[in-house]
Amino acid sequence: MWIFVKAALNSLRASPSDAEDEFDEIVAERDSKMHQDREAVDETSIGVWQLLRTTSLYLPLFVCVCMHLSQQLSGFIAFDPPRGHAW
Fold first, then answer.
1. Would you state the pLDDT for residue 39?
2. Cβ–Cβ < 8 Å for 13, 22
3. Which of 40, 42, 61, 64 lies at a C-alpha separation of 20 to 30 Å from 75?
4. How far apart, in whole angstroms, are the C-alpha atoms of residue 22 and residue 30?
């Protein structure tokens, strides 16, 4: 895929050195973005017990559990996937 990006940059830019510099910048930006995404996942991942001990999440968790239980006990289907019928 990167070969196509390089070829497109070469056709768009006046000199090959401009295209090479821009390609290096694109690759460096992609690598930095991937590194930031990995760090964000590591920082935001918490365990189930930490989630249950967070007092600011008690009400949202309670509402979600109550909604799920009421749907299960009433037989209500919140999302009904298509069954292949042509209406």
1. 64
2. yes
3. 61
4. 12
Distance in angstroms (rounded) separating the CA atoms of residues 79 and 10: 49
Exposed/middle/buried for residue 20 (C-beta within 10 Å: 0-12, 13-18, 19+): middle
Which residues touch 52 (CB under 8 Å, ≥6 apart)? 61
pTM of the full predicted structure?
A: 0.41
Q: Where are the domains of the chain?
A: 1-45, 46-77
The residue written with tokens 């189930």 in the block is: 48
52-87 burial: b if 16+ Cβ within 10 Å, else e: eeeeeeeeeeeeeeeeeeeeeeeeeeeeeeeeeeee
- What pLDDT was estimated at residue 44? 67
